[in-house]
Design goal:
The protein folds into two domains: 30 residues, no CATH class; 270 residues, Alkaline Phosphatase, subunit A, CATH 3.40.720.10. Strands 3, 4, 5, 6, 7, 8, 9, 10, 13, 14 and 15 form an eleven-stranded mixed β-sheet that branches. Strands 1-2 form a two-stranded antiparallel sheet. Strands 11-12 form a two-stranded antiparallel sheet. The protein is α/β, with parallel strands linked by helices. The chain binds zinc ion (ZN).
Length: 405
C-alpha cells in the first residue's frame, strides 16, 4: 500500500513486485522539460558576477543588493571545469564537456581525447522531437556554439565546423557572424553560399530576419555589419555598432521562431564576457555580463508563462582573467574611475593595455592573467528538474541532468 502511494505521488516510477517479493522492473518515464534553455556565460566565474553586481549596486547608490537576473534563481550550485588534459580548460573542451558530458583535451571540439566524435545533447533532443536553437554573441562557429553541433580535433577548423551546421538540421542559429566566411584558402564560395545551397537562409540584421522568417524554416542570423565579410572580432572597447541585435533580442527571436507547439532547446552563449576578460577590460566585462543577464531575463519571462514545462540553466564554461573585486590591499572599490574614463572615451574603453592596467589599479579591480582560470564555475537553475543542479557537480554532469536522466 505504502509503495503504491509513493509511486502514485511521484507519478514517474512504476514498481512491479513478483510473487516472491523480488523487484521485477523499474520503468522510468519522461522527466525532462518541454522547453529547455541553457545559458553559458563564457568566462563568467563567480568573480565576474561579484564585480558586476557590486558595480550595479554602486550605480544605485548602495553597497550590495543589486542582482543579475539569474542570481535570483532558486537553485545554485557549482561545477568543476577541468579538461581531460589541464586544470585550466579552454572553451572547446568545456563546451564539449557541457554539451556531450565527456571530458576532452583543450582545443578539441565535439570529440573525445582519442578524436572520436561525441554526441551533444542537442542531437539527443533533436531525436526526441525538439526544435533546436543555437545562439551566441560571438561567431556561430566559435568554440562554445560549435561544441553543440560540430566535431573537430581543431577548434580553429572554422570552415569545416561551419559545414556541420546544415548536417545538424537544427532550425535556428543566431550570432555575430561566421568566421572564415570565405574559407581557409580564400575560396570564392562563401560560407553563406554553402549554407544556402543546403536549405538554410543566412540573414543579416533585423529587417532581413523579419522577412526571412515568413518563408524559411531554417535560418542562420548574423549581425548586419558582418554581411559579406569576416566577422569583426569582438570590439574589446565595448563600443556597440549601430543597429546591433542584442543577445536578448536573439533569444526572443529564437523563442518566436521555434514556437511552442513542439518542444525546444535553446543554447545561448554570452561570448563577449570572455573576450572582454582576455583584455582585462573591466567595464566591457561588466556590460557583457549585464547583456547576458538581459538575455536570461527573456527566458525567465517565457518561464513565467510556462512554469510547469520550462527549465532554465545558467552556467559558465570557465572563468577568465582572474578578475577580483579588490586590489592593492585596499578595502573599497573605485567604480567612479571606471565611469569617468568611460565617459571621457565616448562610451568605450579604447585604452592601450598599459593605460587600461592603470585604470584597473585606480578602480581597485585586480586581474591576474590574460587567459582562463581553473576555479569551479557557478550554476543557477529554475524550473522543471532544476533541483538537480544544486550542490557540487562536474561540468560533465550537466547533460544528463538536462536530459532528465
Ligand atoms: Zn577564452
Amino acid at each position: 500500500m505504502r509503495t503504491r502511494t509513493i509511486a502514485a505521488l511521484a507519478g514517474m516510477i512504476t514498481m512491479l513486485f513478483c510473487a516472491n517479493g523480488c523487484t521485477a522492473s523499474t520503468e522510468k518515464t519522461e522527466t525532462k522539460a518541454k522547453y529547455i534553455f541553457l545559458f553559458i556565460g563564457d568566462g563568467m566565474g563567480n568573480s565576474q558576477v561579484a564585480v558586476t553586481e557590486a558595480y550595479m549596486s554602486w550605480k544605485e547608490g548602495r553597497l550590495g543588493g543589486a542582482q543579475l537576473s539569474f542570481t535570483q534563481f532558486p537553485v545554485f550550485g557549482t561545477a568543476t571545469s577541468y579538461s581531460a588534459n589541464s586544470n585550466i580548460t579552454d572553451s572547446s573542451a568545456a563546451g564539449t564537456a557541457i554539451a556531450a558530458g565527456v571530458k576532452t583535451n583543450n582545443g578539441y571540439l565535439g570529440v573525445d581525447p582519442e578524436g572520436n566524435p561525441v554526441k551533444s545533447m542537442s542531437y539527443d533532443l533533436k531525436e526526441d522531437g525538439y526544435s533546436i536553437g543555437i545562439i551566441s554573441s560571438v561567431p556561430i562557429n566559435h568554440a562554445t556554439p560549435g561544441s553543440f553541433y560540430g566535431h573537430n580535433k581543431d577548434r580553429g577548423g572554422y570552415y569545416a565546423i561551419t559545414q556541420e551546421i546544415p548536417a545538424s538540421g537544427f532550425e535556428f542559429f543566431a550570432s555575430a557572424g561566421i568566421l572564415h566566411y570565405f574559407g581557409p584558402d580564400g575560396n570564392s564560395e562563401s560560407s553563406a553560399d554553402l549554407l544556402e545551397q543546403q536549405g538554410y537562409d543566412v540573414c543579416f540584421g533585423k529587417a532581413d530576419f523579419e522577412q526571412s522568417r515568413q518563408t524559411n524554416d531554417k535560418i542562420v542570423l548574423c549581425q548586419e555589419y558582418n554581411k559579406d565579410t569576416e566577422p569583426v572580432n569582438y570590439d574589446s572597447t565595448g563600443n556597440k555598432p549601430e543597429g546591433e541585435i542584442t543577445l536578448a533580442e536573439m533569444v526572443q527571436y529564437g523563442i518566436d521562431f521555434l514556437g511552442t507547439e513542439e518542444p525546444f532547446f535553446i543554447m545561448c552563449e554570452g561570448g563577449e564576457i570572455d573576450w572582454a576578460c582576455h583584455s582585462n577590460k573591466t567595464l566591457p566585462m561588466i556590460n557583457a555580463t549585464i547583456a547576458f543577464s538581459d538575455a536570461v531575463a527573456v527566458a525567465y519571462e517565457f518561464y513565467k508563462q510556462h512554469p510547469d514545462e520550462t527549465l532554465i540553466v545558467v552556467t559558465a564554461d570557465h572563468a577568465t582573467g582572474g578578475v577580483a573585486l579588490g586590489a592593492r590591499s585596499r578595502y573599497h572599490s573605485g567604480f567612479a574611475e571606471l565611469d569617468k574614463s568611460w565617459a571621457e572615451n565616448n562610451n568605450s574603453n579604447n585604452l592601450d593595455p598599459i593605460s587600461n592596467r592603470e585604470l584597473n589599479e585606480k578602480a581597485l579591480i585586480g586581474w591576474t592573467t590574460g587567459g582562463h582560470t581553473g576555479e569551479p564555475v557557478p550554476v543557477y537553475a529554475v524550473g522543471v528538474g532544476s533541483e538537480k543542479f544544486s550542490g557540487r557537480i562536474d561540468n560533465t554532469d550537466i547533460k544528463g541532468k538536462i536530459l532528465g536522466e
